[in-house]
């Protein structure tokens, strides 16, 4: 049986429908056969009409239903709306969670290769500090700190130890155990899916690594974690100075680990733009998403680029061949 790819349409107030349409036009016949869109049928049809796009969409009851490959197969999740781009935040939130829950249910039954979710405004989830990574980790009942957000392309991967936290909360949410668990998860994922033991560089938290002062997070938390990971035969080096590593030294590593979200994502995007995908490690299944937001400023302008979604689909299409 052909394993399926579950594609969640994401936030209705976004360029996601435009990106899905452009992606469908570019991917090949065999890949199309694997894709099942989880969304509201009426919403997608109405948004396509607004964009003056034409696409054959077929509602299906399950992902084992046989259909023609030239149709985009859709599992319907109802959304309350009148205007296709003016939907209440409450209804958007209910819809997004229902789509995520549906995809989680199907993926947990091993009926799919994995999940791709298009961009979602994370404030739609119950806690503004919770992104899709944390939401699905909770659904999977993943043990604390074993879920990992990884941003990758063919040249480099990066992970933040903390994700959607205010800067003032970062230091108190870092500890050696958390670093060790997340690096082990990343190392295991590379060995399983990338078939290699990664070379890992880990950053300090403070400017110039706080000159390695005795009471610094580098000395109290990060260096002890590195020593433990080295004893586990993990190829890791650090703490590296975050103000210089992305000039040239990042090329020596497969993975750079930072202490917080923007410490690694900002330089990564400055170097590679949106040539990347977002992967959640540690779940019961593979979950990826395009490395961009909802782009509400581009709604209706037909300027959104599908490159990252195409990379997500190709990643899942190839990873378990």
Using only CA atoms, what is the Rg?
20 Å
Q: Structural class of the secondary structure composition?
A: alpha/beta
Q: Which superfamily, in CATH terms, is the homologous superfamily of the largest domain?
A: Isopropylmalate Dehydrogenase
Q: Quaternary status of these chains? A: single chain
Tally the helices: what do you get?
10
* DSSP helix fraction: 25-40%
Assign the CATH topology of the largest domain.
Isopropylmalate Dehydrogenase
Task: Report the average pLDDT across residues.
Answer: 91
Task: Give the total of beta strands.
Answer: 12
Q: What distance lies between the first and last C-alpha atoms, to the nearest angstrom?
A: 13 Å
Extract low-pLDDT stretches: none
Tell me the overall shape: elongated
What proportion strand? 15-25%
How would you characterize this protein structure?
With 321 residues, the chain is of the alpha/beta class. It has two domains: 1-142 and 283-321, Isopropylmalate Dehydrogenase (3-Layer(aba) Sandwich), CATH 3.40.718; 146-276, Isopropylmalate Dehydrogenase. 36% of the residues lie in helices and 18% in strands. The protein is built from ten helices and twelve strands. It has helices at residues 16-26, 29-32, 41-51, 89-108, 132-139, 167-170, 176-194, 217-231, 261-272, 307-319; strands at 4-8, 35-39, 57-60, 72-76, 112-117, 148-152, 157-160, 200-203, 236-240, 255-258, 277-281, 286-290. The protein has a twelve-stranded mixed β-sheet with strand order 3-4-2-1-5-12-11-6-7-10-8-9, with helices on both faces. Helix 7 (176-194) packs across helix 8. The longest helix has 20 residues, at 89-108. The chain starts with a strand and ends with a helix. The model has no long low-confidence stretch (mean pLDDT 91).
């Amino acid at each position: 049986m052909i394993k399926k790819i579950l594609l969640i349409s994401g936030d209705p107030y976004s360029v996601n429908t435009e990106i899905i349409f452009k992606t469908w036009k570019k991917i090949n016949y065999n890949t199309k056969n694997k894709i099942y869109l989880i969304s509201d049928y009426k919403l997608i049809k109405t948004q396509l009409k607004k964009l003056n796009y034409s696409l054959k969409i077929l509602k299906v009851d399950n992902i084992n239903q046989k259909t023609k490959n030239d149709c985009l197969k859709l599992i319907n999740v109802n959304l309350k709306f009148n205007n296709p781009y003016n939907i209440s935040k409450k209804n958007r939130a209910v819809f997004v969670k229902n789509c995520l829950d549906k995809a989680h249910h199907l993926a947990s039954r091993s009926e799919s290769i994995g999940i791709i979710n298009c961009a979602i405004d994370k404030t739609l989830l119950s806690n503004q500090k919770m992104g899709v990574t944390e939401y699905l980790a909770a659904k999977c009942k993943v043990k604390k700190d074993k879920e990992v957000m990884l941003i990758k392309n063919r040249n480099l991967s990066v992970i933040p130890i903390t994700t959607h936290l205010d800067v003032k909360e970062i230091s108190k949410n870092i500890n050696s155990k958390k670093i060790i668990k997340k690096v082990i998860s990343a190392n295991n994922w590379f060995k399983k899916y990338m078939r290699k033991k990664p070379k890992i560089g880990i950053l300090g938290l403070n400017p110039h690594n706080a000159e390695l002062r005795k009471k610094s997070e580098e000395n109290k938390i990060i260096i002890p974690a590195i020593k433990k990971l080295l004893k586990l035969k993990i190829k890791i080096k650090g703490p590296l100075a975050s103000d210089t590593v992305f000039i040239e030294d990042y090329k020596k590593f497969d993975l750079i680990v930072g202490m917080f979200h923007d410490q690694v994502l900002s330089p990564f995007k400055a170097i590679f733009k949106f040539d990347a995908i977002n992967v959640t490690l540690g779940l019961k299944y593979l979950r990826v998403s395009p490395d961009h937001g909802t782009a509400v400023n581009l709604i209706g302008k037909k300027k959104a680029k599908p490159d990252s979604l195409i990379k997500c689909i190709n990643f899942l299409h190839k990873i378990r061949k």
